[in-house]
């Protein structure tokens, strides 16, 4: 029996309604804007409308896949997030319902900070390996939000990426070798009673870099490819400069001089979207992959390394090989439109959005229609979020 290749058959993204240039944040904070533009490598961040959440972003990304491929064979939806809307019920169930996915389906939410999306992808591959007739919908969806006037505020953002994992994929074959690293560390976490994370930013940068080393060593020990074989390197990008630090660390470790030109040429195409979207936690790595695919010359048959890091912490180094003709299946125009149609807002508008809160006592609220995506949060009734399909994508 020939074992089929397994990987990403389709991939689509979504982001939110508004965009705030970090010059607006600098105007408020009095910080030199180049700290954000150059020091962090971030130019802007998506700010969601009040009627957008991780479910509406996830459904918006996944609907594009369902429109192209239908729902047949989808028996699993894995939704990775670290900004969940419920302590118990999976956000994947709302997406399953909004998209009309079969009831004969397992719908589950996965959590391990920003790493959850990569873990969902690997678990999906396992399901397809067991039954190649099945297809798994993997979604990474997050809204990154830090305390007002904290260092992390410049690294906020929001996005969702949906992927259809199947046998004989049109876009990218997931390679089997993966390097893993888990370490119990308090660099970033969000206790149940908080809406924003507690974060030791400097510790998280060091922990990420250490995890890169360990994950790479494990990958090598398991017979992975050499650095020189990869045509691209996608890192989790909490802010763009973090990917630059990570890649510099990897090159140093391999005895390759990490010149500015080398690091830039290895990473630049992966950073174009995240630079203006900001951090999207679980989705960030895959937004980076989309940015690479949408901005590269032909990568047919070539391997790309992906490094996922989720604070707390878990890291995984894995790789994909681009399928022949993958470019025909991309959604470059749609991805760019999702970014460019965001409405620029001032710091004051951002702040007013941050101050809005949903009721926490079960009282009903109906939200004004604000977002421009095909799904919206209509309101809250009896402690439940009520979603609405507004229009086709
Ligand atoms: N022009 C150019 N660069 C400037 C600058 C200016 N005017 N002012 C500062 N910088 C640079 C700093 O030198 C630094 O660069 P370096 O790290 O290469 O040395 C960078 O801008 C950030 O400055 P710093 O003073 O370290 O920022 P900060 O104390 O506000 O913290 C984070 C930055 C990333 C720690 C903070 O945004 C954070 O906590 N983010 C959330 C957590 C996170 O994303 N962790 C990443 C791993 S998951």
**Ions and ligands:** coenzyme A
Mean pLDDT: 97
Q: Can you give the helix content as a percent range?
A: 25-40%
* Named CATH topology: Peroxisomal Thiolase, Chain A, domain 1
Q: What letter string, H or E per element, gives the SSE order?
A: EEHHEHEHEHEEEEEEHEHHHEEHEHEEE
What structural class do helix, strand and pairing data support? alpha+beta
Total beta strands? 18
Give an account of the 3D structure.
The protein has a single domain, classed as Thiolase/Chalcone synthase (Peroxisomal Thiolase, Chain A, domain 1, 3-Layer(aba) Sandwich), CATH 3.40.47.10. Helices cover 35% and strands 25% of the residues. The protein has helices at residues 22-29, 33-40, 54-69, 91-98, 116-130, 201-221, 240-253, 260-277, 284-295, 332-340, 347-355; strands spanning 6-15, 18-21, 44-47, 74-80, 106-110, 135-144, 157-167, 172-174, 179-182, 188-189, 198-199, 232-235, 303-310, 314-322, 343-344, 365-366, 375-381, 384-389. Strands 1, 4, 5, 6, 7, 8, 9, 12, 13 and 14 form a ten-stranded mixed beta sheet that branches. β17 and β18 form a beta hairpin. The termini are far apart. Coenzyme A (COA) binds next to α2, α6 and α7. (3S)-3-hydroxy-3-methylglutaryl-CoA binds at residues 32, 146, 245, 279. Belongs to the thiolase-like superfamily. HMG-CoA synthase family.
Descriptive tags:
single chain, 393 residues, alpha+beta, Peroxisomal Thiolase, Chain A, domain 1, ten-stranded mixed sheet, three-stranded mixed sheet, 11 helices, 18 strands, globular, binds coenzyme A, hydroxymethylglutaryl-CoA synthase activity, transferase, Hydroxymethylglutaryl-CoA synthase, HMG_CoA_synth_N, HMG_CoA_synthase_prok
